[in-house]
Design brief:
The chain is built from ten helices and two strands; from the N terminus they run H-H-H-H-E-E-H-H-H-H-H-H. By secondary structure, it is mostly helical. It folds into two domains: 183 residues, no CATH class; 34 residues, no CATH class. The protein is globular and about 65 Å long. This is ADP-ribosylarginine hydrolase Tri1 (Immunit y protein Tri1) (Tri1-Sp).
Length: 251
């Protein structure tokens, strides 16, 4: 469902949803999330690899977030250790945590929070697992919900944040795609083609209808790691469809 931008109640409920909800309800109350993931990984090697892929993305994304958009410095860390102006991630832990210096942190994220890269990959993973196949309309609706309601992001909907209470990292092509999504839904509603309770994904085009040739590297950042959870059920033509979509400013 493509939750309206201004419906914060529905957006808040959406942020609490998890694709693991059924597995959690079938487990004892004391079972932790990690326990459920560990169980799935132990039972299936493919699932183990997919979980590792997503966790690796989220961890790497979170580790790099405080230094995102900093200039690349090819100098060895040791030779710049006394430069108080240089953004820096220490090679050793401090009190059991990563230690940064002079962070850029453009999005005002807390230590351990990931960016749009992991969030949009998680949206794609949810779509593949829910649909059982690649569904461009469903994936786009989930990305829309990510930006406006915090679906699959690190801090959900946070009213205390100074920079973006729902999500961060929106690119220009993604923003244009969201406008198209909303117009498609509005047109379907006016034409009475969207009965109440019907998923908005059914009327959203699977590909952003852009005629510009300005696709960036968004799919490389947001897409590949979201694919492994549903890779086993994807057919070659569906993989090709995803590739074509990425070339047309997919988001």
């Amino acid at each position: 469902m493509c939750v309206p931008r201004n419906d914060k109640m529905l957006g808040s409920e959406l942020c609490q949803w998890s694709i693991l909800a059924d597995a959690m309800s079938a487990s004892s109350a004391s079972t932790a999330w990690w326990g459920v993931l560990d169980k799935f990984a132990a039972e299936d090697r493919g699932c183990d690899s997919a979980i590792g892929c997503l966790l690796g993305l989220a961890l790497g994304d979170a580790v790099g977030a405080p230094l995102e958009f900093c200039a690349v410095d090819a100098s060895p860390q040791e030779s710049c250790a006394d430069d108080d102006r240089r953004p820096y991630l220490a090679t050793t832990l401090k009190d059991g945590q990563l230690h940064y210096r002079n962070v850029r942190n453009k999005f005002d994220l807390k230590l351990g929070q990931w960016t749009d890269d992991a969030s949009m990959a998680l949206c794609l993973a949810d779509s593949l697992l829910t649909c059982g196949h690649y569904n461009g309309g469903d994936a786009r609706v989930r990305w829309h919900m990510w930006w406006f309601h915090g679906y699959c992001n690190a801090f959900r909907y946070d009213v205390d944040r100074r920079k973006g209470q729902t999500s961060v990292g929106l690119g220009s092509n993604v923003a244009k795609s969201f406008v198209e999504i909303e117009r498609s839904v509005e047109a379907a509603q006016r034409a009475d083609r969207l009965p109440k309770g019907t998923s908005h994904a059914t009327v959203v085009p699977p590909v952003h209808q852009s005629d510009s040739n300005d696709a960036g590297n968004g799919f490389l950042a947001h897409g590949p790691t979201g694919i492994p959870p549903g890779l086993c059920s994807l057919q070659i033509h569906q993989c090709n469809a995803g590739s074509r979509q990425s070339k047309k400013s997919v988001q």
